[in-house]
Amino acid sequence: MNLGYTLSGLAVGLLVGITGVGGGSLMTPLLVFLFGFNPAVAVGTDLLFASITKVGGVWVHHGKHGSVDWKIVGWMAVGSLPVAIATLFVLKYFMSVGKETTGVITYTLGIALILTAFALLVRSVLLSKAKNQRTMDDAESNLQNSARFKHLQIPVTILIGAVLGVLVTLSSVGAGALGTVALLFLYPRMTTLKIVGTDLAHAIPLTAIAGIGHLSLGNVDLVLLGSLLVGSLPGIWIGSHLSAKIPEKYLRPFLALILLLIGLKFVLH
Length: 269
Hints:
mainly alpha; 11 helices
């Protein structure tokens, strides 16, 4: 058990609890830049880390709040899980023929971080619009808004899942912020609580399958995983209680800027 890894897990857990930003967006760059881990090992370890830490959140959303739309979770999984498995097979093939996969993982990680940074900034705008739509007095207008993407909702939901399947498997980033923004845009009438719960529920099988796949490829450090969990679980609990006392409207744009800069560093590396 490494104290430095545990303290890093605690710090990331605090930020996740306060801002709701996905742990992968913060943890994977930290492991690469601060501790010098190979990007593939950082991604693989973080995927299993994410699948374990998200279980508690879904338990609360499903059991206590009933805020998981399992039908949407299913449609997203139809797109994401087969694509994640296919991506793992492609990685395995390239590794078997001696091709270097670190560059692809690093570049994808950079792209995912840049998209996440923009998603963090757009998310508050979409949340505000969604709230306004839900409080409109005109029932007919509400009906039109709710049906805005009706005929495209299922195929686009599957497509979103497929895109997340590639991004998450290659970078461990995107299951949180990008998934939430996509659902907010596609399902403007859903409550914020249900959006978050649904996205969280979809992230568990996706990160678990991708993480197990990376484990089979030798891209998971189990000692690192245990150290991160020891620090992050209490960190998330503390951060969620501090979230009401810390001005997130200032912290979120700052985090978005940091993620953007880190993403550009990965892409331009």
